[in-house]
Amino acid sequence: MNHTTAQDTWRSVAAATGPADRAAAEAGIRLAYRTAGLAEPARVLWADSPLAAVTLVRGLTGQGRSVRDAVRTRPWAEERRRLHDELGPAGWAAHWQATGAPLWDLTRRLADRIRAGVTAAATGAETGVDGTSGAGPEATVVRLVLLDAVLGQHDAAWLAAFEGQGERLAGLAAVARQSGWWWPYENVAVVSERPVELHRDEAGRLDRGDGPALAYADGFALHAWRGMPVPAAFLAGLAGLTPERIRKEENAEQRRVMLEYYGYERYLTASGARHEHRDETGVLWRIELADDEDVVMVEVVNSTPEPDGTHRTYWLRVPPTTGTAREGVAWTFGLHPDAYAPLVQT
Question: What is the reported pTM?
C-alpha cells in the first residue's frame, strides 16, 4: 500500500461512524494480546460510548492490572525504533510527513475533546470554551481511567505510518478499523463503540450549529462550533438570536459564535451601528441605545490564519468613551494608545 492510499484509508477509519463488527474487533483484541505474549482476555465487554466504557471500567472487579503498555505502548515503540533505524532520521521524518502527520492534528484534537467531554460528563462539570473539564478528586480518577485507554480508530495517524511495515501491530490495527477506544486489562477488555454521528468543518474541527457535532448511541455527545466547545443549550438558542441578546452576552467567545451565526453585516444593520473610525488595528463601531450607554465595539481580524486558511474576525467590546480603533484595542491590553504598537497582531 502506497503512502497516499494508507493515509486515505486511515483517514476514513478515524472518521468512521456506526456499529462495529464486534467479532472482527474481538479477534483483533485477542491477536494484540497474543502478539504481546499475553493470555487472551477471558471476557470482552462492550459499551456504547467512551463515557459508558469509563463507567464500566470503574465498576469492574477481578479485571487485573492494565496491560496497555504491553499491548500498545511497547510494540508501538519497538516498531517505531525499527523503522527509524531502517530509514534513518531524515527518512523517518519524510515517511511520517507522508503518512501520519496529516492525520495527527485531527485525531489529537478529537481525542483531547473526547477526554474533556468524558471527564465533564462523568463528574457533572461543564466543559469550558477552552476545552477544560473541571478539577477535583473525581475528575482525577476519571482521567486516570482514560490513561489506560487504547484509542482505537483515533490511533489512525500512527497506524498509517506503520501500515505494511510488519505484523507487530496487526491486532491493534484490526481493532482500530472496527471500534472506538478500548481498555486492555489482564482478564478483561472493555471496548467502546464508534460514534453514530460526526460533523466537522473543512478544517477537520468539530462543527455543527443545530445539534451535537459528535454523538454516540447512548446519548453522550459533544457540541462545538468551528472547533470551539459550546453547551448544547447555547446552540439551541442560536435560532432565536436577536441583536440585543448578542449585545448582552458577556462571554466573548460565545458572543463571537453568535455573531458568526447571525452574520456580522446583518448584526450591524439590525443594530443601527455607526461606523466611527478605521485604522490599521481595526474598525470602530458605535450602537446608540435610547435607555442605556452606547455599545462600542472594535472589529479586528486575526492576522494568524485558521487551519483552513481563513482569518477569524473578532468583536471587542470597549468603553463607550473610546474614540479610535487603536484606543479600543489598546484598552483591551491595558495600554495607552501611544504604547500599543505590536510587531505582529494576533
Answer: 0.77
